[in-house]
């Protein structure tokens, strides 16, 4: 509040200069768009998949599981369910059964009568592989896992016992070319 006899304060002096405000606004807009402008002048990085499939490191384990066999053909899986218990996503279902002299499928006392992996749940963490006491389960480098139904995403034992097809040969890949 002005004292008596003091000249009133000029309203234009109390306000920031219009020019300074304009400069600040333009600077802020420029700052906001800086990422966009930088991207405009960058070289495009377009993956030509599936025409070009970059090679993976030889020991990459990032894809579908494989149930392994011993050299004599017997399954390494003994149906112990440790992989299913270790799985944080509850993606594995195992039902074990006893081997008999007439029907021996694995090298242990038991074998996996049912073995399923649900790839809608699996997060490829590899904990199941770590948990397996017989090294029956490994991750391959085939990451082409696309399905047309929920049922297709559940792999059965007979599928997991087969090595996956080479990358780029999955059904439907041709349409992408
Ligand atoms: S890789 Fe991980 S998420 Fe997938 S089945 Fe194994 S433990 Fe479960
Ligand atoms: S894959 Fe390994 S951990 Fe899983 S049931 Fe078979 S033997 Fe047990």
Mean pLDDT: 88
Q: What is the number of domains? A: 2
CATH class assignment of the largest domain: Alpha Beta
CATH fold category name of the largest domain? Alpha-Beta Plaits
What would the keywords be for this entry?
177 residues, alpha+beta, Alpha-Beta Plaits, three-stranded antiparallel beta sheet, two-stranded antiparallel ribbon, 5 strands, binds iron/sulfur cluster
Question: What this model shows, in words?
Answer:
The protein folds into 2 domains: 12-45; 65-161, Alpha-Beta Plaits. It is 23% helix and 14% strand. It has helices at residues 11-14, 18-32, 34-40, 82-86, 127-131, 157-160; strands at residues 65-67, 92-98, 110-118, 137-139, 154-155. It is built from 6 helices and 5 strands; from the N terminus they run αααβαββαββα. The relative contact order is 0.17. A 3-stranded antiparallel sheet has the order 2-3-5. Strands 1-4 form a two-stranded antiparallel sheet. The chain is elongated. The chain is α+β, with helices and mostly antiparallel strands and 177 residues long. Residues 86-87, 89, 91-92, 117, 122-128 line the site of one iron/sulfur cluster.
């Amino acid at each position: 509040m002005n004292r008596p006899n003091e000249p009133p304060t000029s309203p234009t002096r109390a306000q920031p200069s219009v020019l300074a405000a304009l400069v600040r606004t333009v600077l802020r807009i420029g700052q906001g768009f800086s990422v966009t402008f930088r991207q405009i002048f960058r070289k495009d990085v377009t993956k030509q998949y599936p025409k070009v499939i970059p090679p993976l490191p030889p020991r990459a384990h990032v894809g579908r599981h494989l149930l392994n066999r011993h050299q004599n053909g017997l399954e390494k899986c003994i149906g112990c369910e440790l992989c299913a218990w270790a799985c944080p996503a509850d993606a594995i279902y195992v039902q074990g059964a006893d081997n008999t002299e007439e029907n021996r499928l694995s090298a242990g006392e038991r074998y996996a009568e049912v073995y399923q992996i649900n790839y809608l749940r699996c997060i490829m963490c590899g904990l199941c592989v770590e948990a397996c006491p017989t090294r029956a389960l490994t991750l391959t480098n085939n990451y082409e896992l696309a399905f047309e139904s929920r049922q297709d995403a559940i792999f059965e034992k007979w599928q997991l016992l087969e090595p996956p097809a080479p990358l780029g040969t999955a059904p439907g890949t041709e349409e992408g070319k």
